[in-house]
Design brief:
The chain is an all-alpha fold and about 80 residues long. The chain is about 80% helix and about 0% strand. The chain contains three helices and no strands.
Length: about 80
């Protein structure tokens, strides 16, 4: 269910970045900030568990950033 939520969020951000590139930056940063807080909280676990708990948050934040930038990049390549 969490994976579906992250995928849906990436799709929404990509569409928002394509339609309104400037207005997509703030939701993207807010989402990355929230996921970063989860990664930092998960990273407080000792040893290998810290890396294991923080990895899903780090990869989700990276996916959110990539989807937003992909939407803005595809918008800039459009001929109109």
């Amino acid at each position: 269910m969490v994976i579906a939520a992250v995928v849906a969020l990436c799709v929404v951000l990509a569409v928002l970045a394509f339609l309104l590139p400037r207005l997509s930056r703030r939701p993207e940063r807010g989402t990355q900030r929230t996921l970063g807080a989860g990664a930092r909280a998960g990273g407080k676990a000792p040893g290998v568990l810290g890396r294991l708990f923080s990895k899903p948050f780090r990869s989700s934040a990276r996916a959110v950033g990539r989807s937003g930038s992909a939407g803005r990049r595809s918008r800039s390549r459009m001929p109109f």
